[in-house]
Every structure is written in structure tokens, then in C-alpha cells.
Amino acid sequence: MQESQHPIQQSPELLRSNRAEPSRGFDQESRAPQIRKRPAAAATGNGPVVLAEKQSVLSRASEGEHSLLIERARHYLASAPPSVSGERGHDRCFAVVCALLHRFGLSSHDAMALLLEWNKRCIPPWGKYELQHKIQSAQAVPQRREPFARARAGRAHRASRGSSAYSVRATRVVPEFDPVKLAVLAKKAGYVDEQWLGSVSPLRPDTRTPASFLHVLYEPGEQVLIFDVFGSQGQHLWKCQAPPFDARELDGFRRGKPNGVWFLTNPVDGKWKQNDTCNRSRRSWQNITAFRYLLLESDQADPAHWLRALVQMPLRIATIYTSGGKSIHALVRLDAASREEWNEAAARLKPILTLLGADPKSMSAVRLSRLPGCQRGEPDRLQRLLYLNPTPEAAPILTICEGRKP
Asked: Is 162's pLDDT higher than 80?
């Protein structure tokens, strides 16, 4: 099937429309051939009209190509690893800047706008002045290849023909945990420990009960499943109440549970529904009412190193607590609008977090986590709350609390 021609290519006669060409016709009475000439007004008026039409078409094509190019570059950054201090972060950032300027052919203004989005995942994030300096340096580097911006945008346009959205399926390879890289990052915050973290916590952690802890994380009316048997469907469906509330309502779980106590990190509706395995459940993604939190935990990283890495991550960390064992858990606030948006956000974070020791299996919207304030069997194995922030910012805790060293 032949493709339709471009509007400018369809009408070559338009390019000749400013010339008075004879057209052959017949006189109705004599039926004899007669030469009729076009009016002079039409000959002089069509030129500017055609030129304006051509400019309008070219302008719309240019705008569409630019939008596709920006979207293509944004997809590239979504799969590009962030820069990490101590791990050739300067080289990584400069390579990304060169790609935006030379491979995608973006302006410095467009490149900066996209870099600020990618920069949120860097550890630590770059300052705007530093990014501007890298853009200037990259502009001085001669291009080693032709920009593929126009070709890429054209292919994107053909791929999206007939569709309202253009999507790219990115393949992300999850790296393995590297304890050396974690140690290098942890060294930058060598003074951070559990005591320091408690001292900078916006809410005092050592006075919180399990119920008052949950009241900070959830909204009135939301429900959370509580477990003392990990593989069960939950032993209690707790409901968040508007103040005043009873801070002792979950005290029955604080002691006497041999394996400790868990809670499902995202709120649920409490109903029994069919899950993806065709079983009835009340702890599957179909039950979630708000895709709010992402759980980070590590059973293989050194706890001290893992804690020092957490405080340097530019994430909205709402709370940090121990598991009653060697692991430290953290809840990152995502506030995703849907399951798909939550999965996409988790997929972007997973490579760098896994490299630093995070368990990739724990990055699930229906993951169970330890409930602070409860004992894990023996009295000395307390699931302790270390940090609690009801309004976390998308910035490292270390940056927010800069200057508050012991």
C-alpha cells in the first residue's frame, strides 16, 4: 500500500500557480476549441498564499518532531544509570550531557530541563551551576558522530502512527550488590549512626507505639493489614482514625509473638478478592487503595554502611527502623497514581539501589515490613523505630540536616 504524499509534494502545480497558463476548453455555441486565460488577479494572489501554507505545514512538522525528540530523550534518561559520588560520577554525568546535546541534538535549555529530572536520582544530586558547567564543557567537545535526532524522531513518528501515545520498552539489567561501592558511599557519612538519626528525626521515635507510628503514615479511613504469621492473610485489619485516637490499640502485638510482627506497607480495602493466581486474597495488588510507599531493606549489606547510604539518597524517606535482627528497613514515599506508575518508579530506582545492597524482591507494592515497637521473639530483639518524618522531602536526610554533626 502506497503511503500518502506530504501536502507540499501532492500539488506540484501549486508551485506554478503564479504563472498565467492557458487552459483549453469549448465554446458552448460553436463547440469550437477556445483558449481561456486565467485572471491576472489570481495569478498575482496565489504566490503568497501558497508560501504561507507551506510555512504553516513546515512549522507544524517542526513542532511535532521536537516533541517526539524530547520524549525520546526522556525515555533514554529513564534507563540511564544515575551518577554516584566516588564511582566516576563526573564521567557518568558528562556522558549523559553529551548524549543530550550531540546524539539528540537538544538545545542547552531543553537539555537542562531534562537533566534536572534525571538529577533527582543521582547520589548526591548535582547543583544547577555544576550542570550548567557540564553543558558548556560538552558544547566545546566536537561531535564524533552525526546527530541522529531527525532520524530517531522520524522513526518514532512512523511507529506512533495511528496511536495517541508513543512508548519505548526499555530493558533494564539489575546489577548485583557491590559491597565495595556501598563502603565508599558510606565513608562519606562516617559519623552517622542510629543515635544521630534519632536526634535529627522530625518526630521523636522512642516514644511511638505501633499504633501512633501508623497514624503518621496513613490517612483517616485507610486500613492496614497486621501480621504475626508471615504467610497468612493477616491477623488484624487496622483502621486509621482521625484524632483523638487510642495509641494503645495495637499493644497486643508488642510482645509474645515468636517471629515478630509485620504490616503491609500500602493501605488496602480489607476485602477478599481474586488475585493473579486465581486465589482469594486480601493482600494482593487488587486490594491496594493507595500506591504510596516503596520498601527498601537489605539483609546482605553491613547495617552501618546501609544506614549511612540511606541518609545520602535523594528520596522521600518517611521512616527508618530495624527488623529486630541485622536488617534496616526504610519506607520511601512515591505517591503513585496507579500500579503502573508505581512499577515504573520502582523500576527506575531498582538498579542503583540493588547495587548498594537493597533487596530487589522487597521492591513490591504488596511487600510486608516489620512493625516498629514490637518484639521479635526475645525481649532484646526489638523492632526499633529510628526515624519518622510525616512530610519527607525529595532530598537526602544528610543534606536536610547539614551541620548537625555529633
From this structure: no
Name the residue range of residue 236's domain. 179-400
Q: Is residue 358, in this structure, part of any structural domain at all?
A: yes
| Alpha-helical regions (H) of 276-405 | 303-310, 339-355, 397-400
125 part of a folded domain = no
Q: Is residue 376 part of a domain?
A: yes
Place of cell 541518609: 311
Which of 191, 195, 204, 203 lies closest to 402, judged by CA?
191
Beta bridge partners of 375: 382
Q: Average pLDDT for residues 9-23, to the nearest whole number? A: 44
User: 119-142 burial by CB neighbour count: b if 16+ within 10 A, else e?
Assistant: bebbbbbbeeeebeebbeebeeee
What domain count does the chain have? 1
pLDDT per residue as tens digits for the range 171-228: 456 678 999 999 999 999 999 999 999 999 999 999 999 999 999 999 999 999 999 9
Q: What's the DSSP call for residue 238?
A: E
- Report the CATH number that the domain containing residue 336 is assigned in CATH: 3.90.920
Domain presence at residue 116: no
Own/partner long-range contacts of 110-114 (Cβ < 8 Å, ≥24 apart): 110/70, 110/73, 111/135, 114/70, 114/73, 114/74, 114/77
Tell me if residue 137 falls in helix, strand or coil: helix
Whether the bond between 124 and the residue before it is cis, its omega within 30 degrees of 0, is yes
| Helix, strand, coil % in the chain, rounded to nearest 5 | 40, 15, 45
- Three cell numbers, residue 47: 504566490
DSSP 44-111: HHHHHHHHHHHHHHHHHHHHHHHHHHHHHHHHHHHHSPPPBTTTTHHHHHHHHHHIIIIIS---HHHH
- b or e along 294-305 (b: 16 or more beta carbons within 10 Å of the residue's beta carbon)? bbbbbeebbbeb
| Model confidence, pTM | 0.61
Rounded to 10 deg, the angle between the 128-139 and 108-119 helix axes is 130
Q: Report the distance separating Cα 128 and Cα 113, nearest Å.
A: 10
Q: How far is Cα of residue 329 from the mean position of the Cα atoms in its chain?
A: 21
